[in-house]
Amino acid sequence: MTIHNLYIFDRNGSCLYYNEWNRRKQAGISKEELQEFKLMYGMLFSIRSFVSKMSPVDKEGFLSFQTSKYRLHYYETPSGLRFVLNTDLSVSNARDTLQHIYSNLYVEYVVKNPVCVPSHSLDSELFSGRLDAFIRALPYYSPRAA
Amino acid sequence: MSRQSNRTTDSKKMNSELFTLTYGALVTQLCKDYENDEEVNKQLDKMGYNIGVRLIEDFLSRSNIGRCQDFRETADVIAKIAFKMYLGITPSVTNWSPAGDEFSLILENNPLVDFVELPDNHSTLIYSNLLCGVLRGALEMDTLRGDNVTEIRLKFIKRIEENIPAGDE
Amino acid sequence: MADEAPFQFLHNELIQYIYKSAENVEAENGRNITKLENMGFRIGQGLIERLTKNTARFKDELDIMKFICKDFWTSVFKKQIDNLRTNHQGIYVLQDNNFRLLGQLSAGKQYLEQAPKYLAFTCGLVRGALSNLGVKSIVTAEVSIMPACKFQVMIQKM
Question: Which domains occur in chain A, in start order?
Answer without folding.
Answer: 3-137 (3.30.450.70)
